[in-house]
């Protein structure tokens, strides 16, 4: 990241807030910490155990936490200054934070979250939007925007966030890092401000899959036992239909890696919409009012809608009173969001809860102990800052329907970055059954390197298609050169052939043809040199030998010229031009 980012930025100076950097192209001021942090401090791990005892599992790693995890002695912020003003410092640190510090990691600060952890956008009106380090003109995604950015920019090795409706998975995808949403209930949410308790899950960001693996094991207190291989890897075709970037950009890479690592037989394709329509009957009762030209996509969209309604309902039953007391302090965005969903009837909420219970059974039955689902994490590239797309129903519903699978079923999900498409980060997600966290983390670790390798191959093969188009333009230049030669416009011909050589330097014809033009302009040395290059590229080029012979004859290198004409005759014994030239030269020296 540093190299691409570095040439965009100019250092403009020091301010109290820190070094400011200006993203020239996007006319945005980016803080030196990318606006990721609310507060910096250092909570050190206990001293390492004396050898021969094993060192702490997370020794030498630093991490940051989203500003809704309690840290002893600090006020937990919740993404809005009004919250800090009306709350006391925490008496205890959240166990999730303590367990990581005791595991050897150093906690270095609190990061920005969306207002009250509520949205998926990463645009906080009170603290400013953290900048997306891998796509400066685009949103980082939320709710745990700062934690994603802190890892993406390399300030910490990992970070914690909260994933209610996607708050870890989506910003991980947008900022090009790994994101992990553990199974619902796998980690106690004690000491973490609730957004929507039946959906909230503590999540982890990391760049390195083995760090994610280690942190996951410490956080979930997983035993390190034998690894299980996936037996069924299901690519969710209808979900890839929702994708706004070419789906095979992702499915190809997954297919190749999976086949290589686990064998072809584990791979198959499913339509999850059909499966859910059959196994989650309560979805149908929510389908009304969901617009979709494709019937199959209706259940997916209803699922996203159900999640949103549950989130809003639970959020308001916990925080409604406080919100009422500080209403003017809320951003207009949050006020509008809360109003829009305020009229949900208790009957509808019950339907949403039924959907959740049915989802849990349906997905556990589908995935069993050794199955994985492969879906896009998000519908496409991160939207641009301040764009209308962010608030549009289309975007929100498409994103939420993808994110709702894990949130509504309690399954665990990992987001894996897959390079870039048109300068925006791409990712894929894999989902394992609820409780299959160790299996999921093992699989991510096993498959990560292979996925990256296939992404690189894809980039290389698309740049080789660029080579083809370069070759095509070189051919065009050659044709123009031939036409100029025919018209006896020798200089013009030389420059067209030179252009062809610049576009594609490995074609002997271009050199040989330029030599012919050079012969006409009297540039015999250049003609000789071009013929030598042509011959080195193609040992059987009769024309190149003939032209070099001519050049050498005109330069007075008769002996070498004879050799060239003789060799031309070896290649083409009946060639008159060669015969005539040879007998002329031989007569000269008889
Ligand atoms: C000799 O060979 C060259 C190259 O193949 C060809 O262009 C030319 O027409 C030939 N000349 C004769 C008279 O056969």
TrEMBL record:
The keyword Transmembrane helix applies. TPR repeats lie at residues 474-507, 542-575. SMART domains: TPR. Residues 55-208 form the Amidase domain. InterPro entries: Amidase_dom, AS_sf, TPR-like_helical_dom_sf, TPR_rpt. The keyword Transmembrane applies. Keywords: Membrane, TPR repeat, Transmembrane, Transmembrane helix. The chain crosses the membrane at residues 6-23. It comes from the Eukaryota. Gene3D superfamilies: Amidase signature (AS) domain, Tetratricopeptide repeat domain. PANTHER family: AMIDASE 1 (PTHR46310), OUTER ENVELOPE PROTEIN 64, CHLOROPLASTIC (PTHR46310:SF5). This is Amidase domain-containing protein. It comes from Spirodela intermedia (Intermediate duckweed).
């Amino acid at each position: 990241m540093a190299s691409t980012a570095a040439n965009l930025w100019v250092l403009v100076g020091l301010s109290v807030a820190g070094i400011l950097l200006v993203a020239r192209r996007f006319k945005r001021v980016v803080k030196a910490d990318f606006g990721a942090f609310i507060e910096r401090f250092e909570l050190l791990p206990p001293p390492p155990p004396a050898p021969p005892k094993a060192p702490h599992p997370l020794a030498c790693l630093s991490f940051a936490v989203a500003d809704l995890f309690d840290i002893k002695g600090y006020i937990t912020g919740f993404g809005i200054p009004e919250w800090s003003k009306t709350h006391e410092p925490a008496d205890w640190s959240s166990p999730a934070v303590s367990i990581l510090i005791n595991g050897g990691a150093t906690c270095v600060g609190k990061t920005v979250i969306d207002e009250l952890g509520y949205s998926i956008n990463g645009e906080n009106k009170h603290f400013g939007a953290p900048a997306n380090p891998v796509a400066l003109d685009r949103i980082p995604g939320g709710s745990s925007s700062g934690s994603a950015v802190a890892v993406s920019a390399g300030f910490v090795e990992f970070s914690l966030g909260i994933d209610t409706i996607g708050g870890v998975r989506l910003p991980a995808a947008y900022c090009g890092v790994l994101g992990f949403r553990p199974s619902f209930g796998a980690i106690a949410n004690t000491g973490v401000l609730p957004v929507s308790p039946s959906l909230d899950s503590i999540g982890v960001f990391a760049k390195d899959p083995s760090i994610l693996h280690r942190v996951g094991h410490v956080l979930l207190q997983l035993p390190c036992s034998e690894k299980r291989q996936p037996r069924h890897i299901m690519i969710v075709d209808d979900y890839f239909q929702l994708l706004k970037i070419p789906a095979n950009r992702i499915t190809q890479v997954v297919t190749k890696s999976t086949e290589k690592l686990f064998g072809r037989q584990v791979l198959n394709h499913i339509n999850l919409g059909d499966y859910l329509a059959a196994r989650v009957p309560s979805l149908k009762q929510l389908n009304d009012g969901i617009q979709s030209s494709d019937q199959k996509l209706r259940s997916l969209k209803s699922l996203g809608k159900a999640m949103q309604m549950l989130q809003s309902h639970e959020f308001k039953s916990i925080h409604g009173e406080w919100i009422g007391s500080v209403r003017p302090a809320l951003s207009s965005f949050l006020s509008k969001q809360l109003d829009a969903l305020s009229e949900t009837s208790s009957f509808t909420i019950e339907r949403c809860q039924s959907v959740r219970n049915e989802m849990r059974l349906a997905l556990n039955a589908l995935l069993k102990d050794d199955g994985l689902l492969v879906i896009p994490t998000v519908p496409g590239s991160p939207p641009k800052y301040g764009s209308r797309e962010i608030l549009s129903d289309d975007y929100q519903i498409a994103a939420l329907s993808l994110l709702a699978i894990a949130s509504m079923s309690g399954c665990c999900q990992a987001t894996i970055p897959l390079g870039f498409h048109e300068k925006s980060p791409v990712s894929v997600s894999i989902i394992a059954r609820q409780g299959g966290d160790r299996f999921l983390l093992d699989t991510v670790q096993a498959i990560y390197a292979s996925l990256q390798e296939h992404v690189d191959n894809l980039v290389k093969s698309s740049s080789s298609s660029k080579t083809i188009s370069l070759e095509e333009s070189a051919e065009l230049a050659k044709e123009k050169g031939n036409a100029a030669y025919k018209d006896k416009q020798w200089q013009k011909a030389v420059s067209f052939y030179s252009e062809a050589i610049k576009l594609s330097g490995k074609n002997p014809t271009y050199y040989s043809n330029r030599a012919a033009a050079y012969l006409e302009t009297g540039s015999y040395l250049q003609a000789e040199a071009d013929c030598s290059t042509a011959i080195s590229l193609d040992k059987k080029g009769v024309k190149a030998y003939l032209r070099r012979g001519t050049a050498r004859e005109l330069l007075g290198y008769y002996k070498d010229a004879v050799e060239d004409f003789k060799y031309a005759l070896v290649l083409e014994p009946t060639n008159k031009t060669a015969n005539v030239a040879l007998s002329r030269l031989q007569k000269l020296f008889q």
